[in-house]
């Protein structure tokens, strides 16, 4: 990350018992108004991978909009076990990261956007429900990229608990952009079936959903191409 200017900062050891959990944080000129794209990697992915995919686009958008926008690439998979934080701890980690930046004048309290790829996208649905439970919603726009839960398996607990309770407002005011490719190797979990089911759950809880379908796209198509309807357009949608 030394090639970036300014360099990215690594922040970790925020959650007791989870020394691996943290983030790489980058912004062209961080300040109290900086809004972050908080991005979650897929299984086996790293914060470095997410920062690599998003830094250039975020830098370009920051220049185009004359606003300071940064990347907060979250690390939440234990490299020793391959297991990742569950939704409650993941949400606590994100809250601690954003609150920490705000407390030292390097980030805004609210107005951030969220992205998740594959497993990160599936986990994003739970984070969207939990964000704001403390009275402060840190962001209202979520990009779910090629990931949900497999049909016939339980949905993320934060969603199922709200639905069972009869809540229909847990995601009121929240917008999801749900992207999937029709050439994805697993349409059940990552493609049409899983993404459509996730979209229905969001709508039942009062959220809004845009479905972006790439007819030629594989699992990684979103971040690997610059064609319309991919990462650049999604980033503009998130910070419009």
Please write the string of helix (H) and strand (E) elements. EEEHEHEHEHEHEHH
CATH class, named Alpha Beta
Quote the CATH topology: Rossmann fold
Task: Walk across the major sheet and give the strand order.
Answer: 1-2-4-3-5-6-7-8
The coarse silhouette is globular
- Strand fraction: 15-25%
Unreliable spans are none
Which CATH architecture would you pick?
3-Layer(aba) Sandwich
Number of domains: 1
Largest sheet geometry: 8 strands, mixed
Helix content: 25-40%
What structural class results from the helix and strand content?
alpha/beta
The overall pLDDT, averaged over residues, is 90
Number of strands: 8
- Write down the Rg: 17 Å
The CATH homologous superfamily is named Alpha/Beta hydrolase fold, catalytic domain
Our count of helices gives: 7
